[in-house]
Amino acid sequence: MPSTSNLITFTLLALVIILVPGPGVLFAVGRALILGTKPALLSVLGNALGVGVQILLVALGLGAIIQQSEVLFFMIRLLGAGMIIYLGIKAIWQRADFSLTANLAAQSKKTLLRDSVIVGLTNAKTFVFFIAALPSFTSPELGNPITQMLLMGVIFSSIGIVSDSGYAIAAGQARAWLAHSEKRLANFRGIGGLALTLLGFYMLYEALIH
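User: That's the sequence. What structure does it adopt?
Assistant: Structure tokens below.
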């Protein structure tokens, strides 16, 4: 069990990292504009599961090994950027394919969850944060370091789910309130797809220059 001071400090740091809108928020909002509130919340859950795998890798000591392999880490970042660009372009291309009442007609829950897990798993920013922060806030004399890091990971993921869900619900409600016609709904999906595409290209740019 981490010390109380370490838990408080880590929680405050996690709040700062999560509450400042970043890739996770843009992903949640983009999915909400494209698919609606419920699919966006499923995407938030999938993203959190992907981040959870990152936490497990770092806790087991594999995170540092992956980061030290420049080629592997670069490929992971490319995969994440590519997935988001793919989802964004797909949303733009298919923005008028769905009816107002059947948002999930062409996308199963399994597909939504799978894509979102990949996005969360390949998020380089959270991966680097965990590698830097989790070991720094553990106290080996207070218990198993792996258990401590997993606990802090649960705290981070819980805050992230609540925060991203809030943004997703707000975006989904705005979409439902404003989109009273198929044309307007298609425009909203196009905006969401554009947001994801731009996010993906930004992540690609970050991967190429760093």
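The mean pLDDT is 80.
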